[in-house]
Design goal:
It is a single chain. It contains twelve helices and nine strands. With 366 residues, the chain is an alpha/beta fold. It has two domains: 87 residues, Non-ribosomal Peptide Synthetase Peptidyl Carrier Protein, Chain A, CATH 1.10.1200.10; 244 residues, Rossmann fold. The strands form two sheets. A seven-stranded mixed β-sheet has the order 3-5-4-6-7-8-9. It has a two-stranded antiparallel sheet with strand order 1-2. Helix 1 packs antiparallel against helix 3 and helix 6 crosses helix 7. It is globular.
Amino acid sequence: MASDEVVRKALEVIGEAISTEPEDFQDHETWKFLGLSGLLASATISDLRSQTGLDVKPEDFTKYPTVGAFKAYLKGGTTNGSSTQVNGTSSQTKTNRIPEPEDPWEGVPKPKVPLSVILQGDPTTSKHVVFLFPDGSGAGTAYGTLPVLGNSICLIGLNSPFLRQAQDFTCSIERMARLWYDELRRLQPKGKPYVIGGWSAGGYYAFEVAKLLTNAGEKIKQMILIDSPCRLFFEALPEGVVKELTKKGLMGAVGQKKAPEWLIAHFTSTVLSVDKYMPTPLPKEHVPPKVNFIWVKEGLVKSVKDSGLEVDMNVKVTRFLLEPRGDLKTEGWEQLLPGAKYDFDYMTGNHFQITQPFHVRTQPFS
């Protein structure tokens, strides 16, 4: 059993290895997310032994995969790798889930912003109602810069329940979908087929909400996936990339040098949740007949080498975000949405410029 002082020293050693201040560690963060794995983990174990006297082993970062679980282990607690709960899932494996509460709002603080915002039109009179889920920022109002889509269209942006309180965002992608479910049912005229979509992580939310709605007997007419890298093919964005983009003023910047702290905090919590998310396909009979893909063509930087970004370009999602692309297609989503009719559109700009008017053009809605 290690003393609090030894645990503090251990976190200092780990923090030095991954360039993170010990006070910035969050108990729900995983070592994988923080970039502590492989040879770096082995070297850190050696430093821990020599500098703290702790009898730790290389596999301990896997057995106790979160900061909180590892701290409890060092203190001699009963937490173990097979039972530690991480964002609603078992830390032993992403597919071995701990049952979630019947009430998805159990333990969730009251949202500080409305769950939805009507950006265009009127849901009671418009021919089409389009629900768009947020990217990692959590802000449905990001879609407020889109030009008018048409007189017959109502556009509704969904806000994260954890907007401006990201420290409480520790739940799974699937549970987030449950938090939005009643809001969609409230706004959509009964029996009317849904049109839902999302940008980046918002695509995952839309997909999981589609499961909930179709299981309840509702129909999804159309799904719109906006520069959303399929989780079957792409990793969660590494924490080191988030730090580098923030440092360089590239994270969510729209003509500003630095993104607001609440955005970075929510983005970080989203990435942690995405890291533990592994979707399963929609039953073919529930798949929307039409799936629209919108991809950007440009990377965040013209040259990663010249940008000064210190990132691992062996990670597919890092390349997806930073490098220019060809004409992407379904990119793995066909495994989750089998049998749909897929349409593809392409935009100028990069991943964080999706909703900027200069890059957006409208098309007739079908």
